[in-house]
Each structure stands twice: as structure tokens, then as C-alpha cells.
Design a protein that fits this description.
Blueprint: E1 2-7, E2 14-22, E3 26-31, E4 34-40, E5 45-48, H1 56-69, H2 79-88, E6 90-92, E7 98-103
Parallel strand pairs: 5-7
Antiparallel strand pairs: 1-2, 2-3, 3-4, 4-5, 6-7
Length: 105
């Protein structure tokens, strides 16, 4: 497993307390000690952690993570869009793959 700080899109410098971890199957985003999002590329599933909407800063870096690591989508990763796809339970990416979306309880 590889772990690194998420990089700022403005400065391209590592951001403190914002981490990306990945292996052959999963890509994780962690903010401080909270797992915010997991992308399972094999099962085409995105799981948002309990704290995904914890703060403006968490949301800011969640969007950075999703822009960098999430499947190609036809919408912006805003808080409203994330809430919409969580409610829907899935979305279709630009190349027609259906992704399941879930949250931790």
C-alpha cells in the first residue's frame, strides 16, 4: 500500500493531515483520522465515510481527491452532487459504466 499527502491544486505542495492511500484495488482518502472516501475500482463502488461532510475544509479536499482519483464523470463533485448520488445509490460515468455509491453507517 502506498500512502502520501494529498497535493494542493494551487501550489502542488503536500497538504497537512489530508492523505491518499492506494493499492491494486482501492484508493482511500483520509482527513486527519477519519476515512472520508474509498473507491473500489474492481467493484465500481464509491463509499463515503461517516465524516465525509464534516467541514468546509474536508469538502474542499474531498473534491480535490475526487477530481484526481474518481471515475470520469459528467458533473462536478460538489456537496450537492455528492448528496444527490448518495440518495440515488449510483451514477453512470462518461463511458457508460455504472458505479454504486454508498455511505458508512
Amino acid at each position: 500500500m502506498t500512502i502520501a499527502n494529498l497535493k494542493s491544486p494551487r501550489s502542488d505542495r503536500p497538504v497537512a493531515n489530508q492523505f491518499v492511500a492506494y493499492d491494486d484495488r482501492y484508493t482511500y482518502f483520509q482527513s486527519y483520522n477519519s476515512l472520508i472516501c474509498t473507491i473500489d475500482g474492481n467493484a465500481q463502488t464509491i463509499t463515503f465515510g461517516r465524516d465525509w461532510n464534516y467541514s468546509r475544509t474536508t469538502n474542499k479536499y474531498l473534491r480535490v481527491f475526487m477530481d484526481e482519483y474518481a471515475p470520469v464523470i459528467a458533473f462536478e463533485w460538489s456537496t450537492r452532487c455528492i448528496n444527490d448520488i448518495i440518495r440515488a445509490g449510483s451514477f453512470t460515468d462518461r463511458i457508460g459504466r455504472i458505479w454504486k455509491v454508498e455511505t458508512e453507517v
